[in-house]
Batch of 3 targets.
Target 1
Amino acid sequence: MLDVDTGIDDSLALVFLLASPDAEILGIASSAGNVGVQQVAANNLAWLDVCQAPPIEVTVGSPVPLVIPLQTTEDTHGPQGIGYAELPPSSRPLSARSAADMWADLVRANPGEVTGLVTGPLTNLALALRIEPELPHLLHRLVVMGGAFNYAGNTTPTTEWNISVDPEAAKVVFDAFSVVPAERRPIVCALDITERIEMTAEHLKRLGVRAGSMPEERVHEADADNVRSAASNPVVRHLSDAVRFYMMFHRQQGLGHISHMHDPFAAAVALDPSLVQTRPATVDVELVGTLTRGMTVADWMGMWGRDPNADIAWRTDPEAFFDLLIERVGDFAARLYPPEGARL
Ligand code: BDR
Ligand code: CA
């Protein structure tokens, strides 16, 4: 199951998973983060419509972190969390159960079978651990996008966004998973690796070509703010408008005309952990530092005398990931919205 704060890159993660024949999405938990939780839930439902998905349960999570007030980041993801994309509002219903209940219920009903992917703050999962303390043993594997280890933060100098929004929840989760055997250790995709996953305008162009979308997808850094995609394929058009905003944000940060695809990368790892080489470490979260609150600290050498509780993704081939993303999402988009002349 997924727990997301959709979010531009969460959107791509969701579409990638919907496009992946080897993924069965049991449920989508909405977490407060990039934008408020109701908007996150609305975005999740709207993407399901765009992707013509079968009914998939979407739950609403906690509107606030465990202890601190919610911080959102419309500057990064746009006023509604999906950049410049404008998705028709969905009439799909939201689930009546909470996101935390969904986590607990799904792992109890499918012991050892569910992979959990969290690409937002860990609030819902921390709450689920109160309901079902055995959750770490019941889950097949947890994959988390979050943290920064031997690497600068993107929210404070030491702290990554998903952890920064709810550091107490992150600590609860890392502590709870310290009991699992090595093969069940969470795989953590931190900024150290996800900031190497740089999406470019060329990737968007290739996505359009793969989907048979017309005209050629062009996202240029000199484009005026009001330029939008004219792609004939709605999946390509909406994703391109979302990513255009994300690229503008990264440019403003001095990072160039790119965008970091943190969450789709973590989604790909959840489907196929062999995409990454990992290193075991004992991870803890700083909660009291006046300058470093929310920092994820990795003990690589066992200096704390505690067993590893995470496998930190360390090496990957970013272009192999983009080939996979473009192939899967492009083919999926073409199937959903066949190019003119290709209706058989
Ligand atoms: C993470 O923060 C969010 O803004 C992104 O969606 C991603 O999950 C990267 O730090
Ligand atoms: Ca996210």
Target 2
Amino acid sequence: MKKICLILIMASVKVCFGQLPLYKQKAASVEARVKDLVGRMTLEEKILQLNQYTLGENTNKNNIGDETKVLPPGIGSLIFFSADPVQRNLVQKKAMEQSRLGIPILFGFDVIHGFRTVYPISLAQACSWNPALVTENCSVAAKEAVLSGIDWTFSPMIDVARDPRWGRVSEGYGEDPYANAIFGVATVKGYQGNNLSNPYSIAACLKHYVGYGMSEGGRDYRYSDVSAQSLWETYLPPYEACIKAGAATVMSAFNDISGVPASANHYTLTDILKKRWGHDGFVISDWDAIEQLIYQGVAKDKKEAGLKAFLSGVEMDMRDNIYFENFKQLIAEKKIPVSLVDESVARVLRVKFRLGLFDEPYTTIMPEKDRYLQPESKALAAKLAEESVVLLKNKKNTLPLAGSIKSIAVIGPMAKDTNNLLGSWSFNGRPADVESIYKGLENEFANKLQLNYAKGSGFEGTDESGFAEAVSIANQSDVILLCLGEMKTWSGESASRSSIALPSIQEKLLVELKKTGKPIVLVLSNGRPLELARVEPLADAIVELWQPGVAGGTPLAGILSGRVNPSGKLPITFPLTTGQIPTYYNMRQSARPFDKMGDYQDIATEPLYWFGHGLSYTSFEYGTPKLSAQKINKSQELTVEVTVKNTGGVKGKEAVLWYVSDPAASISRPVKELKFFEKKEIGAGASAVFTFTINPMRDLSFPDATGKRILESGDFYVQVGNQKIKFELVD
Ligand code: BGC
């Protein structure tokens, strides 16, 4: 009897399995499942998959979003503002059980530099020159996001940005295409892991494709005059690298690329991204970027905007409701081919299948204390913050603070602040999780040093009433630690500034304190390079802390005490004055480069701190680079080696940046281009060998205005430290 029952059960399981539609069978391939599902869908169901709405309270002031109260169960995606996994599961249950085919919703959110364990802003991360550490931090962000009901982040931003007036410089990795590519890839790896279906992987979204960082005059959302040459040479490479690394999705930008908006640009979205690079995920528009096509002057109404965006290659409409409202008609009018709808839906579903959403649509609910801010996560965030700090100036070894220092006057609007240290795009970050600078100092110097505190001034305004107290405590202390900077709302989206100087009240506070004659250590926390022309001469040491996230003042305290040896180097140039913008290290070569010819007459030519600048408490001596050959042909590789000796008294980490320059080519090349970097810790008195292998096609070629790579023979230079060595490439 038992046996008969078993046979019956097995038979019914088999029947059930046989009846299970192919798209629901976990063992089937993603492509087979996608094809099967698309084949079963009605037009209405397909259109719904191409739309994203929002759920929860949106706190981004730039996106005045309406919460979709009545969600159709078959909706493609939601921006999930509430971060409540229970709510996600309820909404997901509706999708799974009430939509005809049980298609899961894709929950997206802006997880930009950490979720609850906020780590330094992206620009600061790049100062670490430690992409592996960035990857580790991104995996923490991914895990916290997953546990909050999120499957997909709108990150990384890999827009090469050379105008610090633009608030969004804080969100990317600086002025160099290679650095943006490497940190972009590191980020994608951290979010996605080695497989999107891993329980704690989320899908990445590369943004803002493309040329957004070129926004005219540093204003946001503006026209970008990107030549085809710069597009290929500067703005596309980070995207290409991240697509190769498997980034699941891409976001089309707000900006207009030389007359054709990025969200209606067939050339970039379809010809390059899909056809040339073979991206098989999908493109989502930026928030209401499709509707913006009307304001950008390329569509007469929403219907035309939707048509243009879709035909160009934008598969998902973020929050506009334009696809949802117009596609049925556009398809009936035969303006949109059904085959394109099918292909687009397949792209969206492919990502959902890859994420494993059909098989595991729900979030595991864990108590909040187990979800966020785990000790090892905080330790990783602190490590990244430490490596992100850049010691900009250190006159007569003001730092680390000498044993003779018995008291510090901790002054400035940033000294006890916790909110602004989080930086922009830190929606789930809480000021209460952040160690202020003052707290960090208290922990570091407990019972060793006296801390005297005065706020001195606000971040802006004209109130000087706090100056007297600040001067008074400065007079009673051995050294002044002046903590200035930007509020977090001063950078990020739609947060451009016409001047990148600190507000005058902060500069005045510094001037007053200088009169005390006490040494001044200036600590800056900001989201962009600052104009420090008047400030720099008054400070004995300057520490760029950036916006470090939850670690807050702890890494700074470690650097002040000498427990941590600073190792950050700038990924973006600090101009001397705002008027020098644009100034970046990899400018193209120009005519009459002698005797300041062509430069501004009223200001210095040199920026204050170049890309790559950053001091240490030790000194590193670069030996003479050794080349494996003086001459190579186009199919050979060249190895360059340099020995770096730590000649100081403490161990330290050195990031070695390798550049290549090509003095004579058919298309003028930048004065030098970063091609490789590596960071190593070197003990006091010890040496380390750094090696760069030059692959001619990868490192010496350049694209033309169509993206074709050209490799020309001739003389080249490899540069490391302040040395420049010639070699020859022959056919
Ligand atoms: C921003 C994007 C962001 C999106 C969703 C837009 O306004 O430009 O970077 O991902 O909003 O929040």
Target 3
Amino acid sequence: MSSRPLSIIVGVTGGIAAYKAIHVVRLLTLQGHEVTVVPTRAALEFVGRPTFEAVSHRPVRVDLFDNVDRVQHVSLGKAADLVVVVPATANTIAKIAAGIADNLLTTTLLTATAPIVIAPAMHTEMWRNAATQHNVSTLRSRGITIIEPDDGQLTGDDSGPGRLPEPERIVSEALALIPGSESRDLDGRRILVTAGGTHEALDPVRYIGNNSSGKQGIAFAVAAAARGAHVTLVAANVDGPVPGGVEIVSVVTAEELANEVLTRSRGCDAVVMAAAVADYRPVEKSARKLKKDVIGDGLTVKLVKNRDVLASLVLEKSVAGPIIGFAAETADGDELLALGREKMARKKCDFLVINAVGDSIGFGEQTNSVVVIDRAGEVVAEAAGTKRDVADRVLDLIV
Ligand code: CTP
């Protein structure tokens, strides 16, 4: 841990998502930050004070009249480097917008000079209500960061926008406001990442390739390096700039990628196989450009199977930590998961990151949406957002 430890206030208000605040506090304390939890009375209807005390390792106070001698609301607010309200109900958002100070949390918010991050969670109707939306834009205009709620399953049978985002996303968006506070939880670790798509040559100017842009693999390399890892990026024909601070090994073909990965991954702490590796290559590469007048109306190319790098890595057991595979499939929902599970049964890596691809999703985009399964085929994470968000979520699993 070499990141700067921060003094963070986590305000918790009375919504069913209050239980997710426990994980937010846990993630922040695991990263070495000092967390003071300030729940409202209503929050304690959902999660008890001892739970917050246990995860934050600090006493939890709710009332303005606890520790009056220390003028707690002022001392807490002034000392904080960051304030995160998770979950924030429509009621508390309205109070903050109006400057109401009727409990320790709302009073502390009025004295805080540090960045404030608010993660709303409520039913869709309440979120879309004109009053709530007006209050949210008032807070934004004052420089407060509002984390957009997810669209998904809510309490009961309802679903729609209003769901609290995953704790990992809240933590990473909140810490991103404080330069130098990012987690260095991969400090000193060696991680090999593959990115891009291989090209299998037919002749000196033509190849069989695929649509992988390399963006997701590059996002993994950047995220792992930011978290302190020494990263080797085996890059196959990637689009766009490759980051600094990362060792880059450029390859073109699946065979070159296999050779580099199998030698360079020895002793690494993790391998992330984000590259789209060609399953087959032409048996022969013509030394000269193929000519139509010689070939005629039809061209048959004989292909031979390439080595499965991921499966070889798993068999060799020369990587010290987790091996992460990817499954890009033209399916969705249950079928997508079933195809991922089949792939996991064949590849037997530690985690498989499954995503849907098609004409307008996945490849080349700035965002991604994935499901991660473990070796038993259980879903261990779901992540959506920028490719960097997805990378960070998977790196959390590696950690
Ligand atoms: N992979 C690999 N070596 C190959 C082919 C794929 O290491 N020769 C890796 C990819 O980097 C990815 C995972 O295996 O992490 C899944 O790749 P994919 O091509 O989707 O799987 P396949 O087993 O080839 O299945 P299919 O093409 O039939 O879907």
